[in-house]
Design goal:
Elements lengths: L1 H25 L10 H5 L2 H18 L5 H7 L11 H26 L4 H8 L4 H40 L10 H21 L9 H8 L1 H16 L1 H26 L2
Length: 260
């Protein structure tokens, strides 16, 4: 099971890499530019390390793995109720889309729209690059949904919950609600900060802290973390992928409705 999850995470990183490199180029970030310590912490090597620690501590975390996959691999798991992967995943995606819509409205009112949205609105991106980005977007959706859920939800949450269980923070029960929400907030903040560091979310007057707090990815990370804990990793992956499909559609509707 764990070997499969690692393969899924690594495969997702490879799938989303071409889309990510092109997006960084469009946002004015060179792949060969020197990286800050924080950017190193957001890199692939750090992500693999997070997953490795999560694998070691997952048995102490009280968190699920992938119940749908378990049903395929283990006979005992087939006796459990069939997991509601698609229904709950799509519900999580709809919540994420609502979060994005609220964030888009806030960014527009505050005069600091999302950087990529601003470039699209002003026509600063060449048509050829837009076509290349659109062609690579499906791979980006699949790769991000797979890799980021394995890294942030399974890896980071398992590592943090495992440490809290070992230290008996929040009680003896590794799956208690207090510990879960503390961990969920931490991983969601790191998830949102990663998108801020990538330049996808504007850093406003309050700097990185305010940008992370108001980033839609931070709040979506909370949703994906809850979906993962309640229904398993597959449901979180569906929620992530579906939101990445629905949000561009919502952005197009927003632009048509507002002219921005």
């Amino acid at each position: 099971m764990y070997v499969i999850l690692v393969a899924v995470g690594v495969g997702g990183l490879l799938l989303k890499r071409p889309f990510g490199l092109l997006l960084f180029h469009m946002m004015g970030k060179a792949a060969s530019a020197p990286r800050t310590p924080l950017e190193w912490l957001m890199g692939d090597a750090a992500s693999v390390a997070i997953v490795a620690v999560g694998l070691l501590l997952h048995h102490r975390s009280g968190l699920p793995t992938a119940p749908g996959l378990e049903r395929l691999l283990f006979k005992d798991a087939r006796r459990a109720p069939r997991p509601m992967i698609w229904r709950t995943g799509l519900a999580g995606a709809l919540v994420s889309v609502a979060i994005f819509a609220a964030s888009q409205a806030y960014q527009t009112i505050s005069g600091a729209p999302l950087p990529l949205t601003a470039q699209l609105s002003t026509g600063a991106i060449p048509h050829a690059e837009l076509m290349s980005l659109a062609a690579l977007y499906p791979l980006g959706v699949i790769g991000a949904g797979l890799s980021e859920e394995v890294i942030f939800r399974f890896g980071m949450m398992s590592a943090l919950m495992g440490v809290m269980s070992w230290a008996r923070v929040g009680g003896r029960n590794p799956g208690n609600a207090w510990a879960f929400w503390a961990v969920n907030v931490l991983q969601a903040a790191w998830f949102g900060f990663g998108h801020v560091a990538e330049g996808l979310v504007a850093s406003q007057g309050g700097g990185l802290a305010l940008a992370t707090l108001t980033a839609p990815q931070t709040w979506s990370g909370l949703v994906f973390g809850y979906v993962y804990r309640r229904w398993g990793l597959e449901a979180a992956i569906v929620a992530h992928m579906a939101s990445d499909v629905l949000i561009p559609a919502a952005l197009v509707c927003w632009r048509l409705a507002t002219g921005h």
